[in-house]
Design brief:
By secondary structure, the chain is mainly beta.
């Protein structure tokens, strides 16, 4: 059959199929390729391409539970691009289902000189013309990077922004509009103030609140008057384009307030010469529930909840807060099944009209509602602008097709439309003069079921009514993980505890919830059902760590109606150990910070928690992480040798280097990574600093510098006393013992020399009054004058020795009231007072209550020995010994501690020596410590070779599937437990033909994933046949590529039978 005959034949089939109303049981993509495209002279290959025009770009909205890949040509998703309203997020990779739209775009129509012109951006429709909007350059970075999701300008990805926004180039916001005429000539018009102002975040400010409100906002600009690809004169019988500009914002939320959909804000400006008469503006969409499975696109039903809908109770189960459900369009699957994918549980699709406002040239504005809701079968789309305007856009609210429930409707809904739904939703009419603007805003969302969809409709209306701002959960923690054989430890920081909700202005943080996924984020444990038994998008966590307070137990949420576990007052923790995992298997973990019940504008706000990342590999700076448990690499010794030395200063503080074990450490909320637990052989220096705060106050702190790299690893830590495990540095934790910034008491007291064991000196410690010093004592009693200062720590740290001699020494004696002049006398001590570190005798003074002499008397029980006769304070004076009497009690600022002896039990004799020891504190600028460590190393060649024996293949044999596979097009096995170095795997057939070479280098035993994937394809990317295969493994040094060892393995592959459908 020649080409002309083939096209004629297929066209005849297309016409017959449409005219007869019979649609074959095939997907919409196949229906388009084999019926629509030939009949309209379109090339299916063109529609399979993701792009085709210079400034068109694709990006993915994946912050929430509904994922959308869309184009900046105002194509709000297209099935062939994938991820077109994927719900729930990740389901396509897991099961191949489901997405819920074929295509969607803005649609606007008006009269020019009495003739209709309609611009629409849908792709892959049965319309006569489509894709009539083209993006303008200069509103994004100008390039596309699919892996980094750079294309459309996203508020949370500054790399996607242009170097300068239009408002930054021209503060007047003037737009230069080039108008093409029918004869090929052009005119240039200038419209000031059209370019949007930038919000406080530096991103074009959407007309809904101030600044960025959603977790991700997109912005792009299109027009309909591109002379080649727009709404051309040739496409609409010479009427030509409307000459409109659309500024489009898309708001993507991650929290439960809006994570099942998006808000689209379409701001249209007339940038042409003509007033657009009787203009209608809205959207054209083709929802399918779902897109996958046979002719599923042909059996959808629709409902519309109008303003003050008299039949709402017949249409919906939940009619509470009915004012939030007005202008709500719904699509559902009539049999709640998708052939080959779902036997029940098909999602519901919703579109919620939020606003239509025209901004008039006189400064006033006019508000419009939905005036048009029109549905039709996919194959019955308009074939001219006149038909699109007169039949679709101006139709009004269409009378339901099924006043009584449709015979085959599983839900038996009255007042329904369908089956097979393609719709136009618009408002108007209005006249729009050049420069005037119209904003059409709607929410686009999906739900698990009718209840969930209705909940979402209320949420989006409430969200929009609050200027698109939603209460937010606490900031997400940053999660890291360390793995070992059959276990993993998660660790996270405490940043969540200090975040404020920007909407409520409060910090309601309550705790952390730990989740695990075994299917790459498709599910996160056991699904929680609501009070009606319907599933929700909440999951039961592995663990909950919450404040030990009066908030705990089950909280009855209002939407969805579940009981949310607020915790059991366990106290906060910052780590979680999972011992219930299998080596070689991939697990995803997420730690979500959550808050308690809050209030917002007088209304209660249910607890909220962080969303989980859709891709655990995308960022190292979020709350979701992927791990693979594996045994330690053989042949490598973990670096545990390390030594700290006190290189300068006299402090008694000891710097201990505690081995850091991630599975045993009690984490304190600091930011850590697995590399922090691995020794790298670096050297360190610890220094101490003092900074002045205000006029006189000082703060002491310590720092640790990696002298091998120059990095500061501990900065300005003031704690040297608690002994807390706070810092993990290359496999060890630096902790001080006997550390102090000041001298607060003595450390020990002992008799160091005593010839006669019958004598003993009983030390009663330092004075308990004030801070223990003479100055502190005087400040606490009633004296006329107190000392102006006291000795510093450099003096108070000095050890004091009492050396009992026959001649003793002279000093000052203060009677009971030191303020009385005659209360100061000279006294002879039976000892000399010495400063041990300075190795010198110093002056001293005595004070006692009640007066009395002498100071000593003979010990009648021990002839030749003596006792004290009074209780007294002995005050060392940190100055060279003179033996002179002080002139007063307060002028000498060298008077130190008040030391006490027990007169009842003390007995001494000449030659005795008694020492009071004080802990030497740390002195900023004086004390320093150095640390030397040894890194991990290879122990021997034989032990390195042993790594090869640990390598496994999973699964082996391969029986048609791998538990980690997400779809039938991505089959693979893993080589696990690879060793440190460069592993080369050569795969041969049983007959000896080399079909594939795979290489992977691993630089650390703590590498997160010591495995490599073989996709069961040969070097030509063709799937291999079933059979036995030989794998030759060689391990080499990754630096000099010297061979360490080799191993040969066998693996069996049984590929499933595949049949290709032919049309």
């Amino acid at each position: 059959m020649n080409k002309i005959k083939l096209i004629t034949f297929i066209t005849l089939i297309f016409c017959c199929a449409i005219n007869s109303g019979e649609i074959p049981n095939i997907s919409k993509a196949d229906y388009y390729d084999y019926y629509v495209a030939p009949a309209k002279g379109r090339i299916p290959d063109r529609l399979n391409r993701s792009m085709g025009y210079a400034d068109r770009k694709l990006s993915v909205f994946d912050k929430g539970n509904m994922v959308l890949r869309m184009s900046n040509a105002a194509i709000y998703g297209y099935d062939r691009w994938g991820l077109n309203h994927e719900f729930p997020a990740g389901s396509m990779a897991k099961t191949g289902c489901c997405t819920y739209y074929w295509t969607q775009s803005p649609m606007v129509g008006a009269l020019i000189n009495g003739l209709p012109s309609v611009s629409v951006g849908v792709r892959g429709s049965v319309r006569d013309h489509e894709e009539e909007f083209e993006p303008l350059p200069g509103y994004d970075a100008g390039y596309a990077d699919t892996d980094a999701n750079i294309g459309i300008a996203f508020s949370d990805i500054p790399e996607s922004w242009p170097a300068l926004w239009a408002r930054e180039k021209d503060p007047t916001g003037t737009f230069e509009s080039v108008i093409y005429n029918a004869d090929g000539s052009s005119d240039t018009l200038y419209f000031p103030g059209i370019e949007p102002e930038l919000g406080p975040d530096g991103f074009p400010d959407a007309p809904c609140g101030l600044g960025v409100q959603a977790d991700r906002e997109a912005y792009f600009v299109v027009t309909d008057n591109d002379p080649q690809e727009g709404n051309t004169f040739e496409s609409n019988q010479g009427v030509g384009p409307l000459n409109v500009r659309f500024d489009v914002w898309v708001l993507n939320y991650s929290s439960t307030f809006g994570n099942d959909g998006l808000i689209f804000i379409q701001k249209m400006t007339n940038v042409g010469k003509d007033t657009l008469k009787d203009l209608y503006m809205g959207i054209a969409g083709d929802p399918d529930a779902p897109e996958q499975g046979g002719a599923e696109w042909t059996d959808d039903m629709a409902l519309l909840i109008t303003e003050n809908d008299p039949h709402i109770a017949e249409k919906l189960v939940d009619t509470s807060d009915a004012h939030l459900l007005e202008n709500f369009a719904i699509v559902y699957d009539r049999d709640d099944a998708a052939e080959g994918y779902l036997t029940s549980g098909v999602g519901w699709v919703g579109a919620k009209f939020l606003d239509l406002t025209k901004f008039n040239s006189d400064g006033t504005d006019s508000t419009y509602g939905i005036s048009t809701f029109y549905t039709f079968e996919y194959s019955m789309d308009s074939q001219s602008d006149a038909q699109a305007y007169n039949e679709q856009m101006t139709h009004g609210i269409q009378t339901p097709h099924n006043i009584e429930p449709y015979e085959y409707d599983h839900y038996q809904k009255p007042y329904s439309y369908g089956p097979d739904i393609t719709w136009v939703i618009a408002g108007g009419p209005m006249d729009v003069a050049p420069g005037e603007q119209v904003i059409f805003t709607f929410a686009d969302f999906v739900g698990i079921n009718e209840t969930d969809l209705t909940r979402n409709a209320k949420l989006f209306q409430s969200l929009y009514d609050n200027n698109c701002a939603t209460p937010k959960p606490p900031d997400q923690p940053v999660v890291q993980a360390a793995v070992d054989e059959s276990k993993v430890v998660l660790m996270w920081d405490d940043r969540s505890e200090f975040s404020l909700d920007p909407v409520t202005g409060k910090n309601a943080f309550q705790g952390y919830r730990v989740y695990r996924s075994t299917d790459r984020g498709n599910t996160w444990g056991t699904v929680i059902t609501d009070v009606n038994g319907d599933p929700t998008d909440f999951f039961k966590p592995l663990a909950i760590y919450d404040y030990d307070d009066d908030v705990s137990g089950a909280h009855a949420m209002t939407d969805p109606r579940i009981y949310y576990n607020l915790g059991s007052n366990t106290g906060l923790k910052y780590s979680f150990v999972d011992n219930n995992i299998i080596n070689g298997y991939e697990y995803w973990y997420a730690v979500s910070a959550y808050d308690g019940v809050d209030d917002w504008a007088g209304a209660p706000v249910d607890p909220m928690e962080n969303s989980k990342a859709k891709n655990a590999f995308y960022s190292d700076d979020d709350n979701t992480i992927a791990i693979v448990a594996q045994s330690k690499a053989a042949g490598f010794t973990k670096g545990t040798e390390r030594e700290a030395a006190h290189t300068s200063g006299e402090s008694d503080a000891v710097l201990n280097l505690v081995e850091a074990d991630a599975f045993e450490l009690v984490f304190l909320g600091d930011s850590l990574s697995p590399q922090d637990f691995e020794s790298k052989g670096y050297s360190y220096k610890v220094t101490f600093n003092q900074t002045t705060v205000g006029d006189t106050a000082t703060v002491n702190s310590w720092n640790m510098i990696n002298t091998s790299t120059g990095d500061t690893v501990v900065a300005n830590d003031t704690d040297v006393e608690s002994g807390s495990f706070k810092h993990v540095v290359d496999g060890f934790i630096p902790v001080f013992s006997l550390g102090s910034w000041s001298v607060t008491s003595f450390d020990s007291a002992e008799q160091t020399f005593n010839q006669d064991t019958s004598t003993s000196l009983i030390f009663n410690g330092i004075s308990s009054v004030g801070d223990g010093t003479w100055a502190g004592f005087l400040e606490s009693i009633d004296v006329l004058t107190t000392p102006t200062s006291r000795p510093g720590a450099d003096k108070l740290q000095l050890d004091i020795e009492f050396r009992f001699t026959d001649s003793g020494s002279n000093g000052t004696y203060f009677k009971s009231n030191p303020s009385v002049t005659n209360g100061i006398q000279e006294i002879q001590f039976p000892f000399e007072v010495w400063s041990v570190e300075e190795d010198k005798q110093i002056d001293a003074a005595i004070y006692h209550i009640g007066g009395g002499n002498p100071l000593v008397a003979e010990d009648t029980d021990n002839p030749g020995s003596y006792q004290f006769t009074i209780n007294f304070l002995l005050i060392p004076i940190y100055q060279d010994y003179t033996g002179t009497v002080l002139s007063d009690y307060h002028s000498n600022t060298n008077m130190g501690w008040g030391l006490q002896f027990d007169k009842q039990t003390t007995s001494f004799e000449s030659g005795n020596i008694f020492r009071v020891n004080f802990v030497n504190p740390l002195f900023p600028g004086v004390d320093t410590y150095t640390i030397e460590t040894a890194g991990s190393m290879a122990t021997s060649g034989d032990e390195l070779k042993a790594q090869l024996e640990a390598v496994n293949v999973f699964p082996n044999p391969y029986f048609g599937q791998n538990p980690e596979e997400r779809n039938q097009l991505n089959r693979f096995v893993y080589f696990t437990n690879l060793g440190v170095g460069k592993t080369t795997i050569r795969i041969f057939t049983i007959s000896g033909d080399l079909i594939r070479i795979i290489e992977k280098s691993i630089d650390s035993e703590n590498s997160a994933d010591r495995r490599v994937q073989w996709d069961l394809r040969n070097s030509f990317n063709i799937p291999v046949a079933s059979g036995m295969y030989i794998a030759h493994l060689s391990l080499g040094d990754d630096q000099n590529e010297s061979s360490i060892g080799e191993r040969v393995m066998k693996l069996a592959v049984f590929m499933p039978e595949e049949r290709l459908d032919v049309y």
